[in-house]
Amino acid sequence: SSGINAEYGVAEGAPPLKLGCNNSDDPWEVAQNFINKHSLPQAYLTQIADYIKQNTGIGEKPLSYDPNFCDPFTGSGRYVPPQTGPVPATTSGTTRHFPSTRVLTENIPDASKLIKKITEHNESVNDNVKLSPEEMNHFEKIAVKTSEGVALGSQDMELVAKLLTWEKNLLFPCIDLARSINKSSPKFFGFTDKLGIIAANLSADSTTCVRVSLRFLVDVTCQHTQHCVDNFANQIAPAMDTLNTTDKKFVCMALYKILYNMTCVDTDLITYRCILDSISKLLEYIKRELTEKDKPETMIFHLLVAIGNILTKNSQLNQFVDKSLIKQFSNSKYNHKIVVTASEILTL
């Protein structure tokens, strides 16, 4: 089908990059793939998707999500890319929500809240890692630049590295700063370094460190989806251990996106089985531990879509799906999208 085949300029003075898209493509998926391919700042996602929509005339229908959700520590909300374009119809004539390749990510942290928290914590850290007035001024510029999607340079690495040595109970805004940097400058940290920062803090006593580390992992699974899937057992699956923390809602809010993203690309049968087991575990946990007040329906919906993604590609894994669990979500007490998606899984 027709669409666009253009050169897209991402920055003044930089050579334009080839951007192709068919009218049948999802603008958000194309935009995310374009960002991943060229290692562009994640902040460009909306701008590029809007450009594609304007030039193809594709409309959009937003996915439902909780607009009031906001992290009380960093002011960060969650972002769910809208569903766009045609979706396959089921045999019953309703809308099928899988297979889907629309990876989920997180919003950029609020720069003013990051500056406030790190300024506060700087008064309490050991003197050998405390930021001087000059370094504080430099840090504030970094925080503002990254929140605006401006890439950082190597001259900023020393200060960022210093912040990441702070004590665990004071570290969480520094991790969120690293996450913000990763969005504006995807190559600032190497892939191994990103996972190193995350892994070092997923088992921290500080629940806020765990929270921002999980949010960082969401972004990494969005940027490096295939690499994360290829290394799921050793590098991603251990995040499920955070279910043992007391921060139930926020842990689930991150884990559902991480697991969902893992089903948006292809992998081998054994890895799919591991991902499927993790999804089932999280669904059972959400059903058992969260209440209606926690607004779990967005999480449940995406986890069901994730199961649908896997079974669409690997029907032989159907035997490992807990049908009794899925059947519970086909009950009319849940919203229409959940009921339809659960019902579709049961017919596969």
What would you say this structure looks like, in words?
The protein has 348 residues and is mostly helical. It has 15 helices and 6 strands. The strands form 3 sheets. Strands 1-2 form a two-stranded antiparallel ribbon. A two-stranded antiparallel sheet has the order 3-5. Strand 1 and strand 2 (17-22) form a beta hairpin. Helix 11 (248-262) runs antiparallel to helix 12 (269-289). The longest helix is centred in the C-terminal third of the chain and has 21 residues, at 269-289.
- Taken in chain order, the helices and strands follow as EEHHEEEEHHHHHHHHHHHHH
Unreliable stretches covering 5 or more consecutive residues: 59-95
- The share of residues in helices is 40-55%
For the largest beta-sheet, the strand count, sense and barrel status come to:
2 strands, antiparallel
**Mean pLDDT level:** 83
The quaternary organization reads as: single chain
- Please compute the radius of gyration using only Cα atoms: 21 Å
Question: Would you count the extended β strands for me?
Answer: 6
Distance between the termini: 29 Å
Strand content: 5-15%
Number of DSSP helices? 15
The outline comes out as globular
Tell me the structural class.
mainly alpha
**Major β-sheet strand ordering:** 1-2
Give a short synopsis of this structure.
The chain has 348 residues and is mainly alpha-helical.
Notable features of this structure?
348 residues, mainly alpha, two-stranded antiparallel ribbon, two-stranded antiparallel sheet, 51% helix, 6% strand, globular
